[in-house]
Specification:
The protein is α/β, with parallel strands linked by helices. It has 2 domains: 11-51 and 301-422, Aspartate Aminotransferase, domain 1; 55-294, Aspartate Aminotransferase, domain 2. It has helices at 23-33, 55-63, 78-90, 106-118, 134-141, 161-165, 190-203, 265-277, 283-286, 289-294, 299-303, 308-321, 350-361, 387-406; strands spanning 39-40, 101-104, 124-129, 145-150, 172-178, 206-210, 234-240, 253-259, 326-327, 336-341, 363-364, 366-367, 378-382. Helix 1 (23-33) packs parallel to helix 13 and helix 12 packs parallel to helix 14.
Amino acid sequence: MTADTPIRTSDALRNVRYEIRGKLARRAQELARKGYEIISLNIGNPALFGFRTPETMRLAMIENFPESEGYCHQKGIFPAREAVVMQQQARGVTGVSAEEVFIGNGVSELIDLCLRAMLNDGDEVLVPSPDYPLWSAAVNLNRGKAVHYPCHPENGFVPDVEELAALVTPRTRAIVVINPNNPTGAVYPRAVLEGIARLAEQRGLMLLCDEIYDQILYDDAEFVPMASLVHDTVCVTMSGLSKVYRACGYRVGWAVVSGKVSAAQDFLSALELLASLRLCSNVPGQWAVQTALGGYQSIRELTRPGGRLFESRRAIVEAVAGEPSLELATPQGALYGFVGVNDSIESFDDEAFALDLLERKHVLVAPGTSFNVPYKNHFRITNLPDAAQLKTVFARMSELLAEYRSRPPVPTGRVVDASARFRG
């Protein structure tokens, strides 16, 4: 090996993708540095669009700064963990104490820690498709195999329990449930969640439940906490401050282990060991948890009719309805729409379209294939911008789609890069 020899990277990264902050996002940064104004709709970052964390949470952090200069317990400060316990109890989850609560640097860190604590080489985890891609990446990074269960567009992206059950093998260790769902905005019916819970109990599988959008609901959508349905297996519920409380930068999330806790003692010990190795999570942000969960829930003002998130979602739904090439399963929760492109455009390619939209219209979206789906006719957009800006976005999008519809048909057997015509 010489000084010029490239540094070899880990083989574990072969199957790891995170295109939400990938090459398209890097290209958007290049364009922004050249002076172009880019509308970035690829990521759910409320602060980017003027949302603020509730003032009471900021004050709670400020008042407790003197108590935040040292390491805290590896599981987190007690007031934060106790506040999470009280929230779970209010939701009908029993048998949980502060000892089963872990505070992490966002849900992202906790996903990694939980999978690292449970997986061995070749263990399988059932992950939804589409998924939030960190789940698939974290399974692969921790020596496991992500097996994707389909959530079909024609079923409103709600999973089919029988299809899920057919994928269980002797190597399956856990089922991931993302509800309300990112990227689709689907909110799973109680009957579906009960079916998944019974399947996990019958097969002895853990449930890993990503519920970070638990209070971001529209119309009459009902959020049912999975932990309230699970009794005879282990359920890990993950949530945090990032989305509901518009505090992404605080990096505060939590994981709650419930259900058959007696079977989870080794897992809890492993999780605590891993938490200890990173000493503790961000301490100042933890002081905002008790105030957040016990205080006024301002998210409800944003998600009801007339609220900014509700009206932005309405703008997306109406824009899609008025565009002949687009279709959408109306989001019932979360901060996104997973928009489909119909057969009016031949040979549509989500990545090529996203690049065209960025280069020519200065709008950044996330291609659907970023979310581990086998089809290439979807993209994700966030409803965080206000309704007026979203109307501008869809007007630009419609101009590009009209050009796509007017293209001559691609001759049979010939493959054309749909974005090549617009580069240079």
